[in-house]
Design a protein that fits this description.
It is built from 3 helices and 3 strands, in the order H-H-E-E-E-H. The protein is an alpha+beta fold. It has one domain (5-96). The chain is globular, with a radius of gyration of 13 Å.
């Protein structure tokens, strides 16, 4: 999904609430810092070891700065968590009218 920095900042707490541990405000700040440091055309990712559904899994967040105002942000993880994040993206987009 394309996120401008403000909407990404607003979305990340929804991801925080989905996981049991390993991704909270500190990790969200790391993602936001990553977004701020990327030049146009660059891409980077951060991996977080989290607990979801009682299981230890990796949450990888990839940022592709294809648009300086609204980079693409992708979330890679277990199928169940990826689906839950996808559902949150749909709800979030509906709430914002995008």
């Amino acid at each position: 999904m394309n996120f401008d920095p403000d909407t990404l900042r607003a979305f990340l707490p929804r991801v925080e609430r989905l996981v049991e541990s390993g991704f909270g405000p500190v990790e969200s700040d790391q993602v936001m810092s990553l977004v701020k440091t990327l030049d146009l055309g660059a891409e980077a990712q951060r991996e977080f070891q989290i607990v979801y559904g009682g299981q230890s899994v990796v949450l990888r967040i990839q940022v592709v700065m294809d648009d300086i105002e609204a980079p693409d942000v992708s979330f890679f993880t277990s199928q169940q968590l990826a689906e839950a994040i996808g559902d949150e993206m749909v709800s979030f987009g509906d709430e914002l009218g995008i």
